[in-house]
Amino acid sequence: MTAFQPTLKQLQYLTALHIHGHFGRAAEACFVTQSTLSAGLAELESLLGVRLVERNRRVVRFTPMGERVVAKAYGVLREADELVGLTVGGDKPLAGPLRLGVIPTIAPFLLPRVAPRIRADYPDLKLYLREEMSGPATESLSRGMLDAVLLALPWETPGLTVLPLAQDPFFLVFAPGDLPDPPPSVAPDSIDANQLLLLEDGHCLKDQALSACGRPELRSDPAHRGTSLVTLVEMVAGGLGQTLMPKLALDAGIIAHTNLIARPVTGAVTGNAARTLALVWRQGSPREAEFRLLGEAIVAGLAAP
């Protein structure tokens, strides 16, 4: 065993550089100066006696040994985080810091509804929120950068515990005149693929909506894809087509100041087309009981008038 071992701070610098691929952004994520981060990494390399990162003006590239070390560093930091989790808040539930990832198609519509309830029930909780798409969020969770993630199912969640919270039905949103005498609900097979506007690739809601409607084959023109649900509403209001919108966003008033119409998407076999809101965390986390309490608070917030 070496006389001196890497510090957790040095490993945090290393993983931040691996995630961001840029010294400046990594330093910003660690709340230190770039020179401090560079010096910490140089000390780590000197301590281990190996080169971990190749540096030049344009590219940050990890050496083969650097990739092996950073993979181990993620595990060490995750274990350290779980060790701290054993004592966070003492005997008081949901006290102290909690890093929660929330996907963009949930965050702006759900958090205003549930955050007041969470603050009222758990005033000692310091909730740090990060908005990320499902892939990066679950990767950050697995690496120990987040404690839990609020996302929508279906989504692959290997190594994670999943707590389903609520169903979030899909609605077809369209402009007046697009559907003459619109029915109370819309059958999936009546959706016009040539009129359908979807989110751009990378947003899980796109595939979830199509799958829930039983129309996974539907695609939209790449030139007519939105970067957010708000953008999709603007596109529909501009006469570019129709879109699928979750009830969560409609309840938040996303089309309240438009003349757009929303109808639930239902099928004779599948019933209401919907995604499932869920809270996920690493399997075996010592804070599982707290995460379940958080899930209960979210459900209560959703149910509040």
Question: What would your notes on this structure say?
Answer:
By secondary structure, this protein is α/β, with parallel strands linked by helices. It is built from ten helices and 13 strands. It folds into two domains: 8-85, Arc Repressor Mutant, subunit A; 93-305, 3-Layer(aba) Sandwich (D-Maltodextrin-Binding Protein, domain 2). The chain has helices spanning 8-20, 23-30, 34-48, 64-85, 107-121, 134-142, 204-212, 229-237, 247-251, 288-303; strands at residues 53-55, 60-62, 96-102, 125-131, 148-153, 160-174, 196-199, 225-226, 242-246, 261-264, 266-267, 271-272, 274-282. The strands form three sheets. Strands 3, 4, 5, 6, 7, 8, 9, 10 and 13 form a nine-stranded mixed beta sheet that branches. It has a two-stranded antiparallel ribbon with strand order 1-2. Strand 3 (96-102), helix 5 and strand 4 (125-131) form a beta-alpha-beta unit. Pfam families: HTH_1 (PF00126), LysR_substrate (PF03466).
